[in-house]
């Protein structure tokens, strides 16, 4: 009888686990439609300290040095975003914010992505925060999408940034001038 009681106990525990998993699946299935995600992909054309055509400037650094991407450098960005890597493709909006460089050749990015919606008076934006290897062309970087406004109100998720191309310029007084194209994919939902 003790053997049967043990087997019964195992059966009851297993049945309970199966019912619990079934209930969790039911809840998950009911919640999934509300939490569907979608991708938003765009390309950023960025020119750092390149002169008159610059879209990003080093505005502060140690001892007032604004010509080097080094610990403590603060970069203000105001980049256009496009539908493809070609700068002649359709412009979708703006990529604006700050990069702050740390000592490990990484930077913290605080970016607002504004997607232009023709005829819409409310700005449609995504706010992106995170840290990533500084201007690294070898790997994808992940950052958090912490929220959205306008048509994207309440959406959050993550962003994957990939450098498509990068050109370092070493001329004149701007040794850290560079031009790069980045592909951004935001995976977002409510």
From TrEMBL:
It is found in: Secreted, Extracellular space, Apoplast. It comes from Ceratodon purpureus. It holds the Pfam family Dirigent. Belongs to the plant dirigent protein family. Homodimer. Keywords: Apoplast, Secreted, Signal. Dirigent proteins impart stereoselectivity on the phenoxy radical-coupling reaction, yielding optically active lignans from two molecules of coniferyl alcohol in the biosynthesis of lignans, flavonolignans, and alkaloids and thus plays a central role in plant secondary metabolism. Residues 1-29 form the signal peptide. One of its GO terms (cellular component) is apoplast. InterPro entries: Allene_oxi_cyc_Dirigent, Dirigent. GO terms for biological process: phenylpropanoid biosynthetic process. This is Dirigent protein.
